[in-house]
Amino acid sequence: MENIISMKNVSLIRGNRVILKDINWEVKEKEHWVILGLNGSGKTSLLNIVTGYQYPTKGEVSVLGHPFGQTNLPELRKQIGFVSSSLDRFSQTLKSETVEDIVISGKFASIGLYEKVINEDREQAEQLMASFRIDHLKGKTYDTLSEGEKRKVLIGRALMAKPKLLILDEPSIGLDILAREEILSLTKEIIAHQQCHVLYVTHYIEEIVEEMTHVLLLKEGQIVAAGPKEEVLTDEFLSETFQLALKVHWENNRPWASIHQNIGSTKFAKVESK
Questions:
Q1: Residue 81, exposed/middle/buried by CB under 10 A (0-12, 13-18, 19+)?
Q2: What counts of helices (H) and strands (E) characterise the chain?
Q3: Is residue 62 helix, strand or coil?
Q4: What is the rounded distance in angstroms from the CA atom of residue 46 to the CA atom of residue 206?
Q5: pLDDT for position 266
Q6: Which of 219, 200, 239, 242 has its CA nearest to residue 41?
Q7: CA distance linking residue 43 with residue 218, whole number of Å
Q8: What is the pLDDT of residues 51-103, one digit of tens each?
Q9: Could you give the CA distance from residue 160 to residue 34 in angstroms, rounded to a whole number?
Q10: Is the pLDDT at 1 greater than 80, yes or no?
Q11: Which of 173, 209, 216, 251 has the least CB density, counted as fewest CB within 10 Å?
Q12: What is the pTM of this model?
């Protein structure tokens, strides 16, 4: 398999609103992408198309070698791990579940355990918990965990089915600096040791760790730039994407941005997509 994700001339229109326009994007094997953009830039809609919960108005989509229109989408989703704050809507169901049962439930893509669990499932869950350094949480219920611990448990759940693609949708949102860095360290380990490709969605470029290889910048439903992170994370492209005059510098193989000009005093030229 060469392309993990392929989108050709993809647009998404709802009523008179253009949500995504002429998206041409490929994710190839051994690439790990970060998706950056302001709220309303189209990030969530893009993910909904990748996971098959939304169909584009026009264009061609293929995920993990499965062309849309010729694919059993529920079966495809079993190959995609997904972690998002949107899972918080299941908090009432999750709150009384034990950590290990939540991790195991990822095998069945369910919230709660309703299938027969075999010893191998429990062993796999315990191995994941140990590798994520949350094995000490065994037996604890979800509602007793810190926000950082909850996020690690949900990532473990996403990996239980051994997905070929793992989507981390703003996994550090609401976390303090220590918990955020723990999630980033965990992401580095996943890229290094797990046999899956990572899509990481964030607002903050400093979360782009060394192991992440490529960046997609979205603005108002269109691609500003896409490609290797060193080529995309420029002052010009980031300033256009975030509508602020930004300066980029690198420390410890991670990019950081500072505001170069006051809000309201900046004018932006059109930046053509690569």
A1: buried
A2: 9, 12
A3: strand
A4: 22
A5: 47
A6: 219
A7: 7
A8: 998 999 999 999 999 999 998 988 898 899 999 876 666 777 788 889 999 99
A9: 22
A10: no
A11: 251
A12: 0.89
